[in-house]
Structure formats: structure tokens, C-alpha cells
Write a structure and sequence with these properties.
- By secondary structure, the chain is mainly alpha-helical.
- Helix content is 95%, strand content 0%.
- The chain is built from two helices and no strands.
- The longest helix has 68 residues.
- The radius of gyration is 32 Å and the shape is rod-shaped.
- The chain starts with a helix and ends with a helix.
- The model has no long low-confidence stretch (mean pLDDT 87).
Length: 98
């Protein structure tokens, strides 16, 4: 009878260990799910920001094109200055990475 009692005690001990491991695994699974959901929200937000940026750039490019077509010399010089400035800034930014 003592032997059966000892086995029952060992089984209960192992069952408690297994239960704690399952609870820890459940916690990790929930954390992974929460992290994935949070990342999805960040991606959606970034997509919206880039979409708005794209629309804004398209509108600005259209206005710059109309300005250049008007034949105004000052406007054409401003456009050329903006393009040169953008290229210089782009080159300056890239120089930090290479």
C-alpha cells in the first residue's frame, strides 16, 4: 500500500509540473498572438501614412508640372533648384550609409 501511495504522489507531482508547463506555454502563445496583432496594427498604420504621402507627392508633382508648363522663367528656376536640392539631400543621406 505504501508503494501505491508513493506512485500516486509521484503522479500528482508530475501532473503539477506538466500543468505549470502547459500554463507557461499558454502564456507564451498569448504573448505571441498579442505581438502579432500589434504588429499588424503598426503595418496598417504605416500603409496608410505611405498612401497619404504618395497622394501628396503626386499632387505636388502635378502642380510643379503645371508651373513649368506655364513658361514662367522664375518658376522654372525654382523647379530646377528644388530638383538639384533634392538630389543633393538624397546624396548626403546616402553618404551616411556607405
Amino acid at each position: 500500500m505504501s508503494d501505491a501511495y508513493e506512485r500516486e504522489r509521484q503522479n500528482n507531482s508530475r501532473l503539477d509540473e506538466l500543468s505549470s508547463k502547459v500554463a507557461a506555454l499558454r502564456g507564451v502563445t498569448v504573448d505571441i498572438y498579442d505581438n502579432a496583432t500589434g504588429s499588424h496594427d503598426v503595418i496598417d498604420s504605416s500603409n496608410e501614412v505611405y498612401s497619404n504621402l504618395s497622394t501628396s507627392i503626386r499632387g505636388s508633382a502635378g502642380r510643379l508640372g503645371r508651373m513649368a508648363q506655364s513658361g514662367n522663367k522664375v518658376a522654372i528656376l525654382k523647379l530646377a533648384g528644388m530638383i538639384v536640392g533634392a538630389v543633393v539631400i538624397f546624396y548626403w543621406i546616402l553618404s551616411f550609409f556607405w
